[in-house]
Amino acid sequence: MTGPFLIEPLVGAHDRRTFDSGNAALDRYFREQVTQDIRRRLTNCFVALDPEARLAGYYTLSAASLPVTALSADEVKRLPRYPLLPAGLIGRLAVDQKFRGQGLGGALIVDAIDRAMRAEPAIFTLIVEAKDDGAASFYRHYGFRPLASRPLSFFLPLAEAARQLKTR
Ligand SMILES: CC(C)(COP(=O)(O)OP(=O)(O)OC[C@H]1O[C@@H](n2cnc3c(N)ncnc32)[C@H](O)[C@@H]1OP(=O)(O)O)[C@@H](O)C(=O)NCCC(=O)NCCS
C-alpha cells in the first residue's frame, strides 16, 4: 500500500521548505510550527519520502479522547458505558500536489492505523477533522464515518479498520 514511499517520523534532516499541498495553512503549520509541537509533546508527525527522499506527504498523530455522546445511538449500543473513549487524532494530513492521486493519502491513513494499533495505551478509534467537503470525501473513501454530533468530524474504530485491511 505504501508503494515506493517510505513513511517515518519527521526529523530535522527532512527538507520541509518546498512542501506544497496547495493548502496554505497546512503547509505553514508543517514548515513553521510542527517541530515546536513535537518538542512540547503535543503531537507526533510522520512523513512520506519518495525514492529520491523528496518529502511527499505528512500527517500528525496525537492522543485524544472521544465523548461517547459523539456517537450515534446505534454505535453506543455495542459499547460499555464509558463516558470517554480512547482515540488517536489525525490532526493534519496533506500530500504534496506533485504526488496526488497515487494512493499516498490512503497509505498515510494505513500508517496511522498501524501505529495506533501498536501503541501501548489502547486506542479504540481514530478521529479526524475534515477541513472541507473534499477532505470529507477523502476520509469517507477510506472507511471513516461522520460523528453524530459533528458532521465534518469522522471516526474509524481500529478493530473495524484492521478487519477492512485484512479483507483487501
Ligand atoms: C486530501 C489529500 C490528502 C488526498 O491525497 P491523495 O494522495 O491524492 O489521496 P489518494 O490518492 O489516497 O485518494 C484516494 C481517494 O480519495 C478521494 N479524494 C482524494 N482527494 C479528494 C478530494 N479533494 N475531493 C474528493 N475526493 C478526494 C478520491 O475518491 C480518491 O479516489 P480515486 O483514487 O478513486 O480518485 C490531498 O488531496 C491533500 O493533501 N489535500 C489538501 C489538504 C487536505 O485537504 N487534507 C485533508 C485533511 S484536512
Question: Could you give the topology of this structure?
Answer:
Elements: E1 6-9, H1 24-39, E2 44-49, E3 55-67, H2 73-77, E4 84-95, H3 104-118, E5 125-129, H4 133-141, E6 145-146, E7 153-157, H5 158-167
Bound molecules: coenzyme A (COA).
Coenzyme A is lined by residues 21-23, 26, 93-95, 100-106, 130-131, 134-135, 137-138, 141.
Describe the structure.
With 168 residues, the chain is an alpha+beta fold. It has a single domain (6-167), classed as Gcn5-related N-acetyltransferase (GNAT) (Aminopeptidase, 3-Layer(aba) Sandwich). It has helices at 24-39, 73-77, 104-118, 133-141, 158-167; strands spanning 6-9, 44-49, 55-67, 84-95, 125-129, 145-146, 153-157. The longest helix is centred in the N-terminal third of the chain and has 16 residues, at 24-39. The relative contact order is 0.16. Coenzyme A (COA) binds next to strand 4, helix 3 and helix 4.
